[in-house]
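Task: sequence design from structure.
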C-alpha cells in the first residue's frame, strides 16, 4: 500500500495523456483558456481537491488544494497556447486549421504533468506516508502576462513553503539560469489631425511623437548597462501620408538582469516620452501591459529536484519516436543549436556537442548555467521571489527545436511530449514528497532563501492599482518570453 502513489502516474498514463491531448486540441491563447482551465480544475475536484476558480482578478486562474497543515507545497501549471501555430502531430508543416493557435511552448504538457504530480502526492497523503498540503496553481496567460505576480499580490502564496515547476524542453536538466526582469508598456500619443498638404500648420502629429521617442530611446541605448535590452515596435503609425496622424502608438519591452535596473531604465524612458510630447504638442497616454521579476532559483530546492530527475531518468524513447524525431530534425535550421552552446562551460563542451547532435536527449544533462542569465523573461520569476522555488526541464521536443514553433506543437501532441510529461510528473511528485517527509529540508531551503533575498524584497512590479488589461492584451497578442 505504502508506495501506491509511485504507481499512480504509471497506472493513469492514458488518463493524463488524454487530458493533455484535449488541452493541446483546445489550443486556447492567454486569458481565453476557459475550456483548458475548467478541464484541469474539474479533474482536481473529482479527486477531492478543494478548487478556487477565477482567483486574483483573472477568470481563467485557479488553485486547488488537498491535505492539511504544513508544509504547503505548490506545484505550478500553465495551459495557454500561441497564435498561428496550429499543427497536426506530424513531422512536416501541416496546420490543423490555418493560422489557428497551437501549443508551441508545450503548456498542455506543463499543465498536465503538474496535475499528475499533485494527484500522485494526494495518493501518498491518503496512504498516510506523508503529511502536509499539496496545491496546484492554475496560472493563465504566461505568454502574454504576469498572472503569477497577480496571484502573489492576492496573497495566494503567503502560506506556501516550497514551489516547484517545470517546463517542456528538448533537454532533461535542472534549470539554473536566471531570466530577465521586464516591463511591457504601450505609449500612445494623441495629436491633432489636418490635411498634410493643405494645412499642415494645424496638425500635431502623434507619429512625430512616436518617432522622436524612438530616436531618444536609441540615444539612451548608448548609456545603459550592456545586459539591459530595449526593444519596440510601432503598433499604430497613422492611416495615410496625407492625413496628419492624430493617434499613434509604440510598444516597448524594457529588460534587465535585476528588477531595480528595469525600474530605473523605465523611468528614463518615460522622460523621453515626455520630451517627445513636449516637442510635438501632443499628449502621451501609457498602457502598462505587464511586468515581471528576474528569477532567483533556490539551490536547496534545485538539489532535491536534480536528485529526483536522476532517479526518474530520461524518457525512454522507442524507435517510433526516434524515427519521428529524425524526420522532424530535417525541418530545423543547421544553426539551430549554436545559440545554446554559448552557455556551456568549456569542460562540458564535448558532452554538449554530443548531446545536441542527436535528435532526442537520452541523458540527464549535468547542472550547467549557474550565474548565467537566459535572455528571456517569465512570470515564474515572481513566485521565486516569495517562496523557495526550482524549475527543471524534461525532453518533450526534438533537439534544436526553436521555442514557440510548430515543431513543438507536433511533438507536444504525440509520444515524445507525452513521455517527457510523465517523467516530469514523477520528478515533481517525488520532490514534493521529499519536502513533506523531511521538514529539515524545508527549513534549509528557507535559510537559503533568506540569504539570497536579505537585502532585496519583492514588491509588485505593476503600478499599484493596475488591473489586468485583458482586451488590450488579446489585441496585441504579445509574448512575454
Ligand atoms: Zn512556456
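Answer:
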Amino acid at each position: 500500500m505504502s508506495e501506491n502513489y509511485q504507481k499512480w502516474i504509471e497506472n493513469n498514463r492514458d488518463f493524463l495523456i488524454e487530458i493533455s491531448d484535449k488541452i493541446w486540441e483546445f489550443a486556447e491563447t492567454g486569458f481565453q483558456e476557459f475550456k483548458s482551465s475548467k478541464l484541469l480544475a474539474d479533474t482536481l475536484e473529482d479527486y477531492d481537491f478543494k478548487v478556487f476558480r477565477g482567483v486574483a482578478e483573472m477568470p481563467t486562474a485557479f488553485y486547488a488544494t488537498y491535505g492539511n497543515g504544513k508544509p504547503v507545497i505548490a506545484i505550478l501549471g500553465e495551459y495557454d497556447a500561441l497564435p498561428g501555430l496550429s499543427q497536426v502531430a506530424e513531422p512536416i508543416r501541416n496546420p490543423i486549421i490555418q493560422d489557428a493557435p497551437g501549443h508551441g511552448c508545450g503548456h498542455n504538457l506543463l499543465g498536465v504533468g503538474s496535475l499528475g504530480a499533485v494527484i500522485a502526492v494526494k495518493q501518498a497523503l491518503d496512504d498516510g506516508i506523508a503529511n502536509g498540503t499539496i496545491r496546484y496553481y492554475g496560472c493563465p496567460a504566461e505568454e502574454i502576462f504576469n498572472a503569477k505576480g497577480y496571484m502573489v499580490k492576492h496573497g495566494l502564496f503567503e502560506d506556501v513553503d516550497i514551489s516547484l515547476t517545470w517546463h517542456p524542453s528538448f533537454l532533461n536538466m535542472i534549470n539554473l539560469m536566471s531570466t530577465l526582469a521586464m516591463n511591457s508598456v504601450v505609449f500612445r500619443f494623441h495629436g491633432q489631425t489636418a490635411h498634410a498638404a493643405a494645412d499642415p500648420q494645424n496638425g500635431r502629429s502623434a507619429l512625430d511623437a512616436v518617432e522622436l521617442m524612438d530616436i531618444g530611446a536609441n540615444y539612451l541605448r548608448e548609456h545603459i548597462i550592456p545586459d539591459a535590452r530595449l526593444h519596440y515596435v510601432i503598433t499604430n503609425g497613422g492611416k495615410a501620408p496625407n492625413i496628419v496622424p492624430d493617434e499613434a502608438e509604440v510598444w516597448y519591452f524594457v529588460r534587465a538582469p535585476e528588477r531595480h535596473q528595469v525600474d530605473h531604465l523605465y523611468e528614463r524612458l518615460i522622460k523621453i516620452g515626455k520630451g517627445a510630447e513636449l516637442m510635438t504638442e501632443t499628449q502621451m497616454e501609457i498602457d502598462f501591459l505587464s511586468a515581471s521579476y528576474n528569477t532567483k532559483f533556490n539551490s536547496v530546492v534545485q538539489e532535491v529536484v536534480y536528485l529526483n530527475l536522476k532517479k526518474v531518468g530520461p524518457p525512454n524513447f522507442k524507435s517510433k519516436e526516434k524515427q519521428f524525431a529524425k524526420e522532424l530534425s530535417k525541418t530545423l535550421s543547421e544553426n539551430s543549436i549554436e545559440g545554446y552552446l554559448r552557455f556551456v562551460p568549456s569542460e562540458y563542451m564535448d558532452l554538449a556537442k554530443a548531446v545536441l547532435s542527436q535528435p532526442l536527449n537520452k541523458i540527464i544533462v549535468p547542472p550547467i548555467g549557474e550565474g548565467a542569465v537566459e535572455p528571456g523573461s517569465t512570470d515564474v520569476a515572481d513566485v521565486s521571489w516569495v517562496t523557495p522555488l526550482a524549475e527543471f526541464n524534461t525532453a518533450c521536443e526534438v533537439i534544436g527545436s526553436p521555442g514557440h514553433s510548430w515543431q513543438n506543437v507536433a511533438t507536444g501532441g504525440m509520444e515524445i511530449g507525452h513521455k517527457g510529461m510523465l517523467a516530469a510528473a514523477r520528478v515533481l511528485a517525488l520532490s514534493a514528497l521529499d519536502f513533506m517527509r523531511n521538514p529539515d529540508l524545508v527549513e534549509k531551503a528557507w535559510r537559503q532563501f533568506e540569504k539570497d533575498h536579505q537585502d532585496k524584497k519583492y514588491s509588485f512590479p505593476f503600478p499599484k492599482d493596475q488591473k489586468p488589461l485583458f482586451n488590450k492584451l488579446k489585441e496585441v497578442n504579445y509574448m512575454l518570453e
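The chain has two domains: 4-179+294-453, 181-292.
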